[in-house]
Design brief:
Elements (H helix, E strand, L loop, with lengths): L34 E6 L6 H12 L3 H14 L1 E7 L1 H17 L5 E6 L1
Antiparallel strand pairs: 1-2, 1-3
Helix pairs in contact: 1-2
The chain binds L-tyrosinamide.
C-alpha cells in the first residue's frame, strides 16, 4: 500500500480549475442493418420439402409456407424473412445444412436490405 501526502492540487475548489463540461446529448439512435433472407428456385427440390423448410425455420403456417414456396417456384426467388446479420446468417446455415442432409439442391442466401 503506497501513501502519498494530500496536496492542494488534489482539491477542486469549484473555482473553474476543473475540466467538467456540460454537453447537450441528442439521442440519435442507430438501427442495426437488416438482411433479407431469400430462397432460390431450382428444378429438383420437392415442393413439400420447401414448404417444410418455411414452416420449420421461418415460423410460417402451412398456407403461408405454400404460398411463398409457389412464389419462389414461379418468380425464381422470394424474400422469406428480414433479420439482423447474426440471425440471417444462422437461418441460411440451417436451411443449407438441412437441404444438404436431404440431398436437395435448395439454395438460401442473404443480402443487406
Ligand atoms: N421448382 C421446384 C419443383 O418444381 C419447387 C421449388 C420451389 C424448389 C421453391 C425450390 O426454393 C424452391 N419441384
Amino acid at each position: 500500500m503506497s501513501l502519498r501526502p494530500i496536496m492542494m492540487s488534489d482539491r477542486d475548489d469549484g473555482n473553474d480549475n476543473d475540466t467538467s463540461v456540460v454537453t447537450k446529448t441528442r439521442p440519435k439512435t442507430q438501427r442495426p442493418p437488416l438482411y433479407k433472407v431469400m430462397l432460390l428456385n431450382d428444378d429438383y427440390t420437392p415442393m413439400e420439402f420447401v414448404v417444410h423448410v418455411l414452416e420449420r425455420f421461418f415460423g410460417m403456417n402451412h398456407s403461408q409456407a405454400f404460398e411463398i414456396m409457389l412464389t419462389v417456384h414461379k418468380k425464381g426467388l422470394a424474400v422469406v424473412g428480414v433479420f439482423s446479420f447474426e440471425v440471417a446468417e444462422t437461418k441460411v446455415a440451417q436451411v443449407m445444412d438441412f437441404a444438404r442432409r436431404h440431398q436437395h439442391p435448395l439454395q438460401c442466401t442473404m443480402e443487406k436490405e
